[in-house]
Amino acid sequence: MAGVDKGRVGKLFADLERYFGDLKELGIKEIGQLDDKRNFYSLSMLLFSILNAVIDLGEEIIKAKGLGLPTTYREIFLIIGNSGLIDKKLCERIAELMYFRNLLAHEYYSFDKNKIFSLYQRLYLIEGFIREAKRILKE
């Protein structure tokens, strides 16, 4: 597809697959496991990496489809949802997750295990977005 950096997109999908594999290997099942600092920081870093990769995928979709120039991470997903390429409600929920991304990046000192676990429990949204991104970027 014109406008898509296939090498970059392929690397993003490979990175995301690796991150989700690492999450599975980490084996977090309940919030109490985040009392172990290694689990807490490992999960935090994986979630941050996943969110950043999904942002990059969103940017690739916008670029490939000529949807404009978003000014915030949230706006990336709102633009995609409004375009009809991916379910609008899913994109709105992904946009809400950008709050967590910004906390992880800029206010990590205020992040606690409840926020981390809450984000972790919403990863199914990101998995849905990734499936749709694969479909769109392969068209």
How would you portray this structure in words?
The protein has one domain (6-138): Four Helix Bundle (Hemerythrin (Met), subunit A), CATH 1.20.120. The chain is mainly α and 139 residues long. It is 75% helix and 0% strand. It is globular. It has helices at 6-26, 37-65, 73-83, 88-106, 113-120, 123-138.
Oligomer: single chain
- Percent range for helical residues? over 70%
The CATH C-level name is: Mainly Alpha
CATH architecture: Up-down Bundle
Structural class: mainly alpha
Return Rg in Å: 15 Å
* DSSP strand content: under 5%
| Tally of DSSP β-strands | 0
> Number of helical runs?
6
CATH topological fold name: Four Helix Bundle (Hemerythrin (Met), subunit A)
Major sheet characteristics? none
- What is the CATH superfamily? bsu32300-like
Stretches where pLDDT is under 50 for at least 5 consecutive residues are none
Order of helices and strands: HHHHHH
Number of domains: 1
Amino-to-carboxy terminus distance: 7 Å
Mean pLDDT: 92
Dominant shape = globular
Brief write-up:
The chain is mostly helical and 139 residues long. The protein is built from six helices and no strands.
Secondary-structure map with pairings?
Elements (H helix, E strand, L loop, with lengths): L5 H21 L10 H29 L7 H11 L4 H19 L6 H8 L2 H16 L1
Q: What descriptive keywords fit this protein?
A:
mainly alpha, 6 helices, 0% strand
